[in-house]
Each structure stands twice: as C-alpha cells, then as structure tokens.
Amino acid sequence: MTLLADRFGRTFPYLRLSVIEACNFRCTYCLPNGFQARPGRPEPLSREEIARLLHGFAAVGLRKLRLTGGEPSLRRDLPELIASAAAVGGIESIGLTTNGTLLDRRVTRWREAGLTNLNVSVDCLDRERFQTITGHDRLPEILRGIELARELGFKAIKLNAVLLRDLNDDQMPAWRDYLRERRVTLRFIELMQTGDNRAYFERHHLRADGLEQQLQDEGWRLLPRATDAGPAREYAHADFAGRIGVIAPYSKDFCAGCNRLRVTHTGDLRLCLFGNVGIPLRPLLQCDDDRPRLVSALRTQLGLKAIGHRLHEGETGLTPNLSTIGG
Ligand code: SF4
Fold this sequence. Notes:
Elements: E1 14-18, H1 47-58, E2 64-68, H2 78-86, E3 93-98, H3 103-113, E4 117-121, H4 127-134, H5 139-149, E5 156-163, H6 172-181, E6 185-190, H7 198-204, H8 209-217, E7 221-222, E8 233-236, E9 243-247, E10 260-263, E11 268-270, E12 278-280, H9 291-302
Parallel strand pairs: 1-2, 1-10, 2-3, 3-4, 4-5, 5-6, 6-9
Antiparallel strand pairs: 7-8, 8-9, 10-11, 11-12
The protein binds iron/sulfur cluster.
Residues 231, 254-255, 258, 272-274, 308-309 line the site of iron/sulfur cluster (SF4).
C-alpha cells in the first residue's frame, strides 16, 4: 500500500472528520452567539457515506481517526458511527473531541462501540470562568464524565484548554493539583485567528513560548514525539501522573510535521485547517464502486497541499470559526 503523501515527503495517516456542524456551546473564541441553524443547509454525511470515505482513506494508509464537530455527541447515531469506523481495517485509533456535555451519560456506550481515545475541551477549572468562556455552567458534570471515562481503559484521555490572555492564563496552580494524581494529558492550545474572531484574537491571543519556559523551569521534561502523533509538544514531570502538552500553531516549523487531513461534515476535503480550498468528495461516496476514483482524487489533491499555513500574514483561509471543521 502506498501511503498518501505530499510533494514535501510528508505522509498523512491521520484524518480529522467532522460529523456535524451544530454545537450546544457558545465558546467566546469560536461561536460567541451560539450555533445558528440556517434552513437549506446540506445534511451531514450519512453513515454509509462516512463508511465509504473511511474505506477510501484506509486504502491509502489511514491509521488514526478523530471524530469532531461542532459537537459530535449531538449526532444520535454516534455509537453506530464509531462501530462502523472500528470495522474498517487498518484504523488503529478512533478518537473523539467533545465538549463533554453528554460524557457522563454516553461515554460507556462510545467506549463499547470501539472508541479508543478521548479529548475533552475544558478551558479552565474555575466554574465561573468556565461559564464565562463557554456560555454554560456545565463544568461539574463534565469533570464527573472525565472521572467516569478514566475507569474505562481508554488509550489516552486529553483535556484541551485554549490559552486565553486575561481569561485563563492564571490557572496553572489549579491544573497542577488536577494533574498530580490523574493520568491524563492537559493540552494548552494557542488561540488561532479565524475568519470571525479577529478582534477577540487581538485581545486574548497569548503565545505559548512563555508557558513552555515556565514548564521547563519547573522541571517538566519534553518527551520525544511519536510518529503519527498530533502537533502537541508533550511534557512529563516525575511528581505528576498527568502530562502537559502545548499546541503552538504560531511557533516556527509548526507545519513541518503536518500529518493530518480534514473532511468537513458535508464531505469537503480540506488539505489544511487554514487552507483556501475545499474539495467536494461527496459525489464519490454514493456507491462502493467509486472507491478507486475516490482514492485517485485523494492522491491528486495531495499534490496541491501547501507547505504550511499563512496565519502570520493573517491568512485564515475558508475557516470562519473552528466549529465548521472541528479544529
Ligand atoms: S496549519 Fe495546515 S499545514 Fe499546518 S499543521 Fe495544520 S493542517 Fe498542517
């Protein structure tokens, strides 16, 4: 099998698939006014279309799948989706990125369906501040859901916190306490500019360099990066069961190790989170006989992938906000 590769020699074993655009949160850095359902929007990909998509990607080396949204748990058939992904040969890990609102009620079923990795968005541990950032007072039940998930034998549980100046950049003491006994990874993600959040970005964007220096000064040790790992730089400390990761898209060479592609909830291939092109794959997902055409389309499109994003030039591509593509 020839792996999907671009002209810079990078290979792409990792697919981030958005399964729904709707979200039930109003995160200030993403959907401050909440999800606005507009009539006439195309339906998200069906289970059959998604199964054909995954078989196509598996034919070119897909090993790691992440299901995203909007908020993927809003899809009623999520357990069936997970199970059908688990039935596709070659996919070694199936992850989900969720805001955690249905975690305590559904995580056991997702795990039984074949989910192996879990990422939960928790921007801070202060209940009031959490409500300010997400628009919802749901932190206690989300933390309860994470405790339940920790009993279910996931390969990895990660907490995603978007680093926000003057909103949650003073939370390290609380996070240290949380990570002392818990074998989870907290990942700080630099706030990224998107089409809709320029003013917010200018107010709250904080580079992660200072945080990484602080971690190293406190004795956190940078770990080697696994081959199909995501973009995080991960740190461990002898006194903590948990780890800390940093995702810094504004850092030098961030895109050098790009290994992931994205497909939107309506089947558009996105070569880059901040790219300017979306290639419709849906017409090739209508019958199994189209798999060779799907595979050839993927190979052709990869030839167009750019070396990296142009966020430093304020170029945010097609992404108005991250709920449209699941980050
Ligand atoms: S910004 Fe684009 S090129 Fe860079 S790592 Fe992300 S997807 Fe890859």
